[in-house]
Backbone:
């Protein structure tokens, strides 16, 4: 008779007969724990009539109702609202605003007449009260508790009978039945399993706050992300007020929606139309600026790219970027020098975005190229112009993803001229755009001929 595996990895479930320090499947250290004896045989039990299996054709969308939190951007990310019994894991870096956002969600739900239980394992009741007072979240239906013991939290849920539960955070809660330290893989697994089971049995939505590691992933075992229904990531630069909420997993809605928020002194405020956050306030075109339309989830956002080209004073020219990928900027510089006859090897080049947003998609290549060319020639591009397209190493301009949606959004915002893949080649698009900008800015009566060879 084969011997049952005695050790199991808490990260991926890999089993082994003897203890090892490193998992043989996921290669994680310190995650192999004793699994116990063989599983006991489970007898089949009778199924109540209310829980009997039903044909899928008899089920409707009304069988999974949801209610809106009152914060439109958060509802957009969740797919229209919170589903009763759903477990949502909200992760993010320390200080990014996770607790502030969830406290605003709790206050909005309590203001609508729903009883909310907010359990804080990191802050005292007085600290949460001060934040609630500052952000205007004082509501009589919002109940606070400062607990780190799992059994006490489950008792609070039973006695309070809330319609929404928020636990901040899952890594600070510990179970008395587990000998591991709070935040350890085994503790996080047991705590998340118990809270999820309690939420499902009571049909109460549960919002969990999760810490992240240095690489941005959720701290704890990967099993944590499998247990919950929604995994929402809250990110943003601390130096700017803008925050984004994205979902990497959503059992009740899409995973490509993005919620936009702004951190203020009075709390967090949703931004329903972020079209003006990433554009400069100058009313006249300036050399070295170009607007592109970026995609954040399903949302098209105009973003201004700025460039500065100056003569280098060192043997090694500088390439400084902010908000864009340095490797893509280096590629665009090489394409401009090879296919647009722009010698930039001895120039310092600085490229940045406005508003702190980060552009990582290739659809911003053309805007970066035009901004650099405009700065190098000291010529402002034509007004109300947007550039959308990906640049290849051969100097071709390719269509960006969802190019039609981007162009439609650009024209809706008043950008009459859109430079895109229809220009075909960089050696045609860049000189023609610079010439058009020079002619737009030239005094009346001094227009250059359309066929001027030098741009």
Residues:
């Amino acid at each position: 008779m084969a011997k049952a595996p005695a050790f199991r990895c808490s990260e991926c479930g890999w089993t082994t007969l003897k203890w090892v320090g490193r998992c043989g499947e996921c290669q994680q250290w310190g995650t192999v724990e004793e699994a116990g004896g063989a599983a006991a045989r489970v007898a089949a039990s009778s199924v109540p009539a209310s829980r009997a299996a039903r044909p899928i054709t008899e089920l409707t969308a009304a069988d999974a109702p949801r209610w809106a939190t009152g914060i439109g951007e958060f509802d957009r990310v969740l797919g229209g609202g919170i589903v009763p019994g759903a477990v949502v894991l909200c992760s993010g870096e320390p200080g990014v605003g996770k607790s502030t956002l969830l406290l605003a969600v709790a206050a909005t739900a309590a203001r609508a007449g729903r009883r909310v239980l907010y359990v804080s394992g990191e802050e005292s009741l007085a600290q949460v009260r001060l934040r609630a007072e500052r952000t205007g979240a004082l509501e009589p239906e919002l109940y606070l508790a400062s607990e780190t013991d799992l059994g006490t939290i489950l008792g609070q849920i039973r006695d309070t009978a809330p319609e929404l539960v928020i636990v901040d955070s899952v890594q600070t809660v510990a179970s008395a039945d587990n000998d591991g330290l709070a935040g350890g893989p085994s503790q996080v697994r047991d705590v998340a399993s118990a809270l999820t089971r309690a939420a499902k049995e009571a049909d109460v939505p549960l919002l969990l706050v999760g810490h992240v590691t240095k690489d941005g992933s959720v701290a704890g075992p990967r099993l944590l992300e499998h247990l919950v229904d929604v995994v929402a990531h809250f990110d943003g630069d601390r130096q700017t007020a803008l925050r984004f909420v994205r979902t990497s997993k959503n059992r009740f809605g899409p995973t490509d929606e993005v919620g936009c928020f702004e951190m203020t002194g009075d709390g967090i405020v949703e931004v329903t139309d972020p079209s003006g956050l990433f554009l400069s306030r100058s009313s006249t075109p300036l050399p070295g600026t170009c607007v592109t339309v970026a995609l954040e989830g399903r949302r098209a956002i105009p973003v201004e790219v700025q460039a500065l080209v100056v003569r280098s004073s060192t043997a090694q020219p500088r390439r400084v970027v902010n908000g864009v990928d340095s490797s893509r900027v280096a590629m665009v510089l090489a394409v401009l020098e090879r296919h647009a006859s722009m010698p930039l090897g001895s120039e310092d080049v600085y490229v940045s975005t406005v508003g702190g947003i980060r552009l990582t998609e290739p659809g911003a290549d053309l805007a970066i190229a035009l901004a650099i060319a405009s700065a190098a020639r000291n010529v402002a591009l034509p007004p109300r112009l947007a550039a959308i397209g990906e640049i290849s190493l051969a100097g071709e301009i390719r269509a960006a993803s969802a190019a039609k949606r981007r162009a439609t959004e650009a024209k809706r915002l008043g950008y009459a001229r859109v430079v895109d893949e229809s220009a075909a080649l960089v050696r045609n698009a860049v000189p023609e755009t610079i010439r058009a900008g020079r002619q737009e800015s030239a005094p009346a009566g001094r227009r250059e001929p359309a066929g001027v060879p030098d741009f």
Observations:
- The longest helix spans residues 185-202.
- Residues 444-453 have pLDDT under 50 and may be disordered.
- Residues 257 and 298 are 6 Å apart (CA to CA).
